[in-house]
Amino acid sequence: MLWFLPLTLAQTPTPPPQDPQELVVPQAVRPLPGALDAVPVFNSNSPELIGSEGILLSTFPPEGKQDPSAHLDFAFTGRFDVFAHHVFRALSEDNLSSMYLGVIVQNPGERPVTIDILQAASYLSQPDAPFITLPPFVENPTGAVYAGPGSRVMSDILRGRRQPEFPAQIIVPPGEYRMLLNLPIPVATLDPPLNGRSTLMRLRSSDTVYLASLALLARQTPDGSERPPSLEEWQTLLQTASVAGPRDRTPTPLNNTPPTGQLVYGRVAGVAIGSRWQAQVTDTSTSPTLTIPAAGASFSYGLSTLARGRLGTDQSQAAPLVVRYPDTAYEAHGNYGIQYDLVLPLFNPESEPRTVTLALQTPIKEDFLSQNGLRFFDPLPTQTFFRGTVRVRYTDEQGLPRTRYVHLVQRRGQQGDPLAQITIPAGEQRLAEFSFLYPPDSTPPQVLTVHTLAP
């Protein structure tokens, strides 16, 4: 979803668009081996557009709170992630105050708790990462290429980075509170006055903690400038507030939806289970290798498949939610912020060398393959369905290991360019690895396609 019209690098005349025509590529789509891990993810994405101060997501116990229904009572310990993705529009033409996004943590125990911040990144749409128009395929070795804050955050975390603004460690004394995040979404200088912030943090806690994401307008100093809310002000909001508005569209229940008709997925506000999907992609669960397709043929593996978008695999990869607000999504559809790490031990069974390509693709979404293959568009429509950086590792034709980061922008129904081209001698194996974090503001599903070139 775009927060506002993307900025363009240049304004050039374009011919009238042609109506997209469908192109069918006959091939199999396979369920992805492996599974999500059991790491809980604090997933704050509703309301996406913050229109009032209040609680975005609280896992605190409800006891003693002014609005118990705003608190979901889930404790974190050990490894967990914090994902937050929100937008703010100025409340009125006369009120251009920034909205602050706060993530507060409390130690309910009797001993200090240490929280290690393993990786963390948080970016604004303006000015940190505007939605500029980029080519479909751009090499991104250093992370300097991005379009939108979600794209930039996921690129940083894929590289294992922690922004300097985040300390390596936070100590929370017994019974006390600390801020994991206290950053603004400013709008005063923007036209329209609309901005967004994406955040992902990978954390490890030495003991039990509770978390909440909150929204508070900037406070005024005596000279009229803005200041961030204090820890005490955040604590007061946590104790007294209800969930922030406006509420997003109420989702359609998944257990009794007919196969046709509108399905509202909803925005996520809850605790999802699963931070990473790791898989050894082989022919079978007991096979050590993945046999490449015949010359000229392809097969694909679904990525971020979901209800009504399983592409014939009968597999939904959407992370389950263990606690959620009743008017928010039933699953973490799209798996925003979840990392995929796939290892493909490619095997050539033929008596002559074969060359294989790997590509990320965005086929037309469907639950079953109605045309016995993947459907694409040509020419492409205008809607962007994926923007983010992926990483491939493989051995090139000189036998040298290569690591390649590529920023991709794909429209609905786009086949995508090869990320790697690997020549495999007769009867031999070559290892390829594919990794990415599913970027916010993308629309699932995608596929990873293995194609063998015709001789």
Structure explained in plain terms:
The protein is mainly beta. The protein folds into two domains: 21-34 and 276-452; 47-240, no CATH class. The protein is 4% helix and 43% strand. It has two helices and 29 strands. The chain has helices at 149-158, 231-240, and strands spanning 21-26, 28-30, 35-36, 40-44, 49-50, 54-58, 76-89, 99-106, 113-124, 137-139, 169-172, 177-185, 194-217, 219-220, 226-227, 269-273, 276-280, 290-291, 298-303, 319-324, 331-332, 339-347, 354-361, 373-378, 384-395, 401-411, 420-424, 429-437, 446-452. The strands form five sheets. Strands 4, 5, 6, 7, 8, 9, 11, 12, 13, 16, 20 and 21 form a twelve-stranded mixed beta sheet that branches. Strands 3, 10, 17, 18, 22, 25, 26 and 28 form an eight-stranded mixed beta sheet that branches. A hairpin with a 6-residue loop joins strand 20 (319-324) and strand 21. The protein is globular. The two termini are 41 Å apart.
